[in-house]
Every structure is written in structure tokens, then in C-alpha cells.
Amino acid sequence: MTTTAPGSTTDGRPAAAPGGSAPGSSPWQLARRELRRRPAVRVSTGIVLLFVLMAATAPWLGALGGWSPHEFDKSAVDPYLGGQPIGPLGGISPEHWLGVEPVTGRDLFARVVHGAQVSLLIAFAATAIVVAAGTAAGIAAGYFGGRTDTVLSRLMDLTMSFPSLIFMIAMLSVAKDVNRLVLMTAVIGVFGWPGIARIVRGQTLSLKHREYVDAARVGGAGPWRILTREILPGVAGPVIAYTTLLIPGMISTEAALSYLGVGVRPPTPSWGQMIAESVAYYETDPMYFVIPSVFLFLAVLAFTLLGDALRDILDPRGGRT
Fold first, then answer.
1. What was the pLDDT predicted at 53?
2. Is the peptide bond before 94 cis (omega within 30 degrees of 0)?
3. C-alpha to C-alpha distance for 241 and 319, rounded to whole angstroms
4. What is the pTM of this model?
């Protein structure tokens, strides 16, 4: 009678992991495999990549359309009808692929793709600040504990209890002669780090007494090496999942601030700014309102679906209620 080793088949090969996963698969390989099985995730990933590509190539796409986002085309609007676009659906034509703005005649395609560049640049930069600051604070609070944990935890509570939206509006309203993109990125980033810091702190508390961390500590590894080599890889999954969920919130925040008139200044295009300007024309030219709203909706939805899927796979306990 032949015996087989645990975890092996009768011919000596490693047995398949539960759920059909290949043996020895890393969490990232399992995540990629699981993501490929979800049609909604594939679609949302494609939309995210499309928006990122559109933002990265905005100058070339605008040139391909033949119009600058700041260029007026008075021949595309009717001066006798209050500057309404000439033609159906807001002036959509071979010359203007998504139509034109009322009164000014600026090309909507050029402004939408450049607006994607502004919105995604602010969202990605603010998210990078939030993730870097929150991860560093959370790991430090969870690993060192004591007074460090107390100070950082109280700072998290203070920041989260602060009326951030009111402060953002006030700061952006009084700051006149500064780079608005840099200021918006900094202000949005400053108020976003406590959420991810709390998540990382909790993960660090559960990891710092694991056997491999104790072994590294006994082996003479210093705090920096333990934090970067042992703790950080353990919190990477939840951090990445949380990051993808942060981005749609950052896009919405930028759009909301621009809609309120304290965000990106004209003539720099922004989806929120375009939606705010289109409100006055939604009855006479609804396409001017619909087009930037659809782009904003698709971007937020795609990032949200992708973030939910990554959270379910990389941080399943964090997604449970």
C-alpha cells in the first residue's frame, strides 16, 4: 500500500489549493486571477485605464480634435439665439466631436480631455499624500505604541473631527496668488490621512507580535528594518485596496470644490467647473451639462467598483460589516 505526503497527489505532485488555486500562488497572483473572473471588474479596469490614458495624452488628443481648450469658435454658435450652439445635440459635428460651449464656442472634447488631466492629477497627487502620510503615521503608532501612539491617535481624532470642507473652502477662497493645483492637492491631502492611518495602525498591532517579526527582532534587526521589511509588506494589501477607494472620493472632492467656485480657476478646464457653468444652460443646451457629468460619473463609478473588488480580495475582513 502506497502512502502520499500531505498536500500531494498519488503521483507525488502538489495538490491544488482550495478553490482551484494553483499551489504556491502568492496573494497578488490570487488577486489577479480573481479579478479576471469578474466581468464588472474587467469593464471598470478598462474604463480606468482609458481615463488615465486620456489624461496622459490630453494635449495630443486635443490637437487631434483640432481645437485648443481655450480657443473660441464664434462660427459654431448663433449670436441671434443667445450664443446657442448651431446644430443638433449641442453642436456635435465633424469639427466638434462633443459639441461646443454656448456663447464661447469652445470645443467640449478638448475641454473634457484636459479636464480629465486636471481632475486625475489632483486626485492621484492628493491620494499619494494621504497614503504616504497615513501609512507612516499608522505604522509608527501601531508599532511603537505608548506616547507615540497616544499623540498620533489624538492627532487623527482632531483631524477627523475638524470641519474639513469648510476649511477647504475658506483656504481656497482667501488664497489668491498661489498655484491652485498645488494648493488644492495639499489641502485635500492634509485632511484625508487619518482614515488610512487608523486602518494601518490596526493591522500593525496585529502583526508586530507575529513569530517572524519576533524572529527579526531577536536576530538584531532595527526598528527601521522591521518596519520596512516585515510590517509594511503585511499592510500593503489593505493599503492598496483603500487607495483605490480613495481616488473616486478625491475626484468628487475636486469636482465639488470647482463647482462651488473655489477650485480650479478659469480658463483651466475642470469637470466640476464645466458642470457649474452648464447649470445656466441645462434647459436650452442639456448636452453641455450631460457630457462632463457622464465623464465624472463613469470615472467615479469605475474607480469605486475596482476599489470594492480589491478590498474584497486583499482585505476581506475589512469589507465585512
1. 93
2. no
3. 10
4. 0.81
Q: What distance in Å separates the CA atoms of residue 99 and residue 108, rounded to the nearest whole number? A: 6
Contact 134, 194 (CB under 8 A): yes
d(CA 31, CA 54): 26
The gap from C-alpha 47 to its chain's centroid, in whole angstroms, comes to 13
C-alpha to C-alpha distance for 159 and 195, rounded to whole angstroms: 10
Residue with cell 482551484: 20
- Write out pLDDT tens, residues 11-42: 444 444 444 444 445 556 666 776 777 787 88
Residue with cell 501612539: 149
Is the distance from CB of 112 to CB of 67 less than 8 angstroms?
A: no
Q: What contacts 145, CB < 8 A, 6 or more positions away? A: none
What's the pLDDT tens digit per position in 220-271? 888 888 888 888 888 888 888 888 888 888 888 888 888 888 888 877 888 8
Q: Cell numbers of 218, please? A: 531577536
